[in-house]
Design a protein that fits this description.
Layout lengths: L2 E4 L2 E4 L1 H15 L5 H34 L12 E4 L3 E4 L8 E5 L4 E11 L2 E7 L9 E5 L3 E3 L20 E6 L3 E3 L3 E9 L3 E6 L10 E2 L2 E7 L4 E10 L5 E11 L2 E6 L8 E5 L3 E21 L2 E13 L6 E6 L1 E2 L2 E12 L4 E10 L5 E8 L2 E10 H13 L12 E5 L2 E6 L5
Parallel strand pairs: 11-17, 19-25
Antiparallel strand pairs: 1-2, 3-6, 3-9, 4-5, 6-7, 7-8, 10-12, 12-15, 13-14, 13-16, 16-17, 18-20, 20-21, 20-22, 20-24, 23-24, 24-25, 26-27, 26-28, 28-29
Length: 422
């Protein structure tokens, strides 16, 4: 038998009801009263049609309500939710929205706005910043969140909620990363908003205070290093709110030093005697000037370059050439220091010069008139390296105020130290 099910009640189709009535009437009627039975049957059919029409209207109305049943997991603004897996936090309610970061499973947040429907998902604007090691605010898909406490009654049919005013907002910046000292430009726009206000968790940026216009732009300095989420809250006349945000990162100035244009994996470089080496440095950020210093065993040599501009192109660099051995002696270290409006930044490379001339002689390291280190077969570079090692460990010799430490390679006095005046 054809039937519809609605909360345990069955509605029989018109054809089956009419057929049963006709069969029952004809089976009990007599030929002499055929005309009377036909009239009575027609009247019954009309009454049955009215009943069936009423049942159909009731069925249509109940089906309409049933299609508007809210999903088992009901969420609303102000609810606390928990992630069920690692979940992306986006800047817009869309699978194409910028990803601010990821929230691990079982972290909690508070719904600030929503829902929005896009790309086959229901989106909620959630504040996860109560978790200090996450600190994101943005849009997440409903599929991977659940209310912290929930009560579900599968038999309850909910009536449609009243339509809220269509309040919308957006806030964007000209880029997501800035160097310290740059100007940051933020634009915003809203629809159907009565009041609009900015906010941020740490307020490290100089944002407008109080209510601002429904759309506009603001500039402020990137004067704090780190990341910050800027929030915009748009409120309608009836009190409904919409939240949007953009995340900004301010990078500290920096400088990196390279030798012969090749990146290095350590701070040390081995150089051959009498060879020339090119040292490149790559500054980033607001750079005033950079000084490159070559330190030799007999002195130092400085080269200063003025930038006076923001350097953000990865191909911009300065360069200085040093001979590994020249009139200032053996090259020991190259350092670059750059002045910025944030703080001085630097990088350095230690240089070990190996003598490739194969000339050897004896080494004598003397404390006053007593030899404390000696040996043969030393190149000049190797002798200097051993002297440096001993001088760095001078404390083990228990120097007195009148002691003199000397280093000899053959007949050449490489270095003499007599400044132990206590």
């Amino acid at each position: 038998m054809t039937q519809f099910s609605l909360k345990g009640k069955r509605v029989v189709t018109v054809g089956v009801v009419i057929a049963l009535v006709i069969v029952g009437t004809i089976a009990t009627s007599k030929p002499a009263h055929a005309q009377t039975n036909v009239s009575a049957l027609e009247q019954q059919i009309q009454e049955l049609l009215k009943i069936v029409a009423e049942l159909q209207q009731q069925l249509i109305g109940k089906r309409t309500v049933a299609t508007e049943v809210i999903s088992d997991m009901e969420l609303s603004v102000g609810d606390t939710v928990r992630t069920t897996s690692n979940l992306k936090v986006r800047g817009n309610p869309s699978v194409h929205g910028a990803v601010y970061g990821y929230v691990p499973a079982y972290y909690t947040g508070v719904i600030l706005s929503g829902p929005r429907y896009a790309d086959g998902y229901t989106w909620w604007y959630i504040d996860y910043e109560n978790n200090r090691d996450v600190g994101y605010v943005g849009w997440s898909a409903e599929n991977w969140i659940q209310p912290v406490t929930t009560s579900i009654d599968s038999e309850v049919v909910h009536a449609p909620t009243a339509q809220r005013e269509n309040v919308r907002c957006s806030v964007t910046s000209d880029k997501s990363e800035y160097y310290y000292g740059e100007d940051i430009r933020v634009e915003w726009d809203t629809d159907n908003a009565d009041t609009v206000e900015f906010s941020s968790r740490s307020s490290q940026f100089d944002l407008p205070s109080g209510s601002v216009g429904r759309s506009g732009a603001v500039r402020f300095d990137a004067d704090v290093v780190g990341s910050e989420t800027i929030h915009l809250t748009a409120t309608g006349e009836s009190g409904e709110t919409e939240h949007c945000s953009t995340r900004l990162t301010v990078i500290a100035p920096s400088v990196s030093l390279y030798v012969n244009g090749v990146d290095r994996s350590t701070l040390n470089v081995t150089a051959d005697a009498d060879d020339q080496y090119e040292f490149r440095y790559y500054p980033r950020g607001d750079i005033d000037s950079c000084t490159v210093t070559g330190y030799f065993d007999k002195g130092s040599f400085d080269v200063t370059h003025d930038w006076n501009r923001r350097v953000s192109n990865s191909s911009e660099y300065g360069r200085v050439h040093f001979n590994s051995v020249d009139s200032r002696g053996f090259l020991e270290e190259v350092e670059v220091v750059c002045d910025t409006n944030y703080r001085d930044v630097s990088d350095s490379i230690r240089v070990y010069v190996q003598d490739n001339h194969e000339v050897t002689d004896t080494l004598r390291i003397m404390l006053n008139d007593q030899q404390i280190v000696g040996g043969s077969g030393y190149t000049r570079a190797r002798a200097w390296s051993r002297c440096s090692q001993e001088f760095n460990d001078y404390d083990k010799h228990n120097f007195k105020g009148t002691d003199v430490l000397t280093c000899h390679w053959g007949d050449e006095l490489l270095v003499e130290i007599d400044a132990w005046k206590g």
